[in-house]
């Protein structure tokens, strides 16, 4: 029996009983692997199928010895293709991508799974708000009372839980657990717009289900500055700032795989909340609280698991922030009505808690963006008014200079109390005040002539120039906010 098992047909078996079409599909599948830099960056390489495929690829590249120039060209072409980055499109997403090597890559990038054992034996950090979370997520819900969710409803749920495919689980099982909630959500969409947390060397996150905010609730400036940290896809109507997700698996699905998917999703949510929380701040703040949550459901066991994800400050200069996964609780949803109610209560409460965090940080980020816009508008208005006043003063001075250079008869400068002469009146000069007192400084008044001469020689900026300066300052501030968010 063991021998039969070992001689099981393999994807790279070239025996004659396999048709060409199957051989081609197998070859295409074997090329779906992480790029070489993924393996070069691992602190240790676990023995996985993907690791063996990469080893085979490198051995073939080093042992290749072409016998002709034509074969040399072909070999170089194939070698170049083999070092291209992995195709991370949704069509190539497979559970095998979330193997031990993926988890090691997450750890090497400071994204730590549940119960990770640190090399220096320091304890796994828990969120600072864990006690408050336990109080909040255990609150009873009227929608799960006996009158709303009866024993018969539970038996119907248990019948639906016998689903054999992941799609059926998402369609028939998860809606019963989630209940009716007015929270924007989506699912099964690849996060193509989110900046990779590991340098793009692994697959993109594709949660089966995630909650987020309506895009219109976030200020346009905040969306622009934090786009690749909070906007998961290119679709305009997909919820943004996702900080709650769920991954489901059919009975044949691997529990370890779904945990790694949840780890990835939760870290993205934690980074998004941290970016909104620190929008406009000079230095990032790490309060140690959890604002991102993930969950998993395995149809084979009926187990629902919930986790928190929080960010901690880098432990040394130049290092990354740490992202930590902590278990909130686990519930066997098909055991009894009581266990279902317990798990569904926590699930629904955590969704509400996540929405509260999300809305709070969006509101604070919007407020900072609007305050900046208002201050910039006021500064621009003051600058424009100053330019206008300078322009008027310069024009007045220029007119006076032109008047002095005319060939008109000499004017009589008179003191206050004297009657104006007919000459000055006939020239249209304002004689309500003495020209001498207007342009000749007294002992206790500041010199005006000198300042006006300076403004005349140094022409004031135009309104257009002031407007461009305001726009440039605005752009620099938003760029600075984006750089600070990316750095955090």
From TrEMBL:
<dbReference type="InterPro" id="IPR057684">
    <property type="entry name" value="DUF7924"/>
</dbReference>
<feature type="compositionally biased region" description="Basic and acidic residues">
    <location>
        <begin position="9"/>
        <end position="20"/>
    </location>
</feature>
<protein>
    <recommendedName>
        <fullName>DUF7924 domain-containing protein</fullName>
    </recommendedName>
</protein>
<feature type="compositionally biased region" description="Low complexity">
    <location>
        <begin position="60"/>
        <end position="69"/>
    </location>
</feature>
<feature type="domain" description="DUF7924">
    <location>
        <begin position="203"/>
        <end position="364"/>
    </location>
</feature>
<dbReference type="Pfam" id="PF25545">
    <property type="entry name" value="DUF7924"/>
</dbReference>
<feature type="compositionally biased region" description="Polar residues">
    <location>
        <begin position="422"/>
        <end position="464"/>
    </location>
</feature>
<feature type="compositionally biased region" description="Basic residues">
    <location>
        <begin position="21"/>
        <end position="31"/>
    </location>
</feature>
<feature type="region of interest" description="Disordered">
    <location>
        <begin position="417"/>
        <end position="488"/>
    </location>
</feature>
<feature type="compositionally biased region" description="Polar residues">
    <location>
        <begin position="85"/>
        <end position="95"/>
    </location>
</feature>
<feature type="region of interest" description="Disordered">
    <location>
        <begin position="1"/>
        <end position="95"/>
    </location>
</feature>
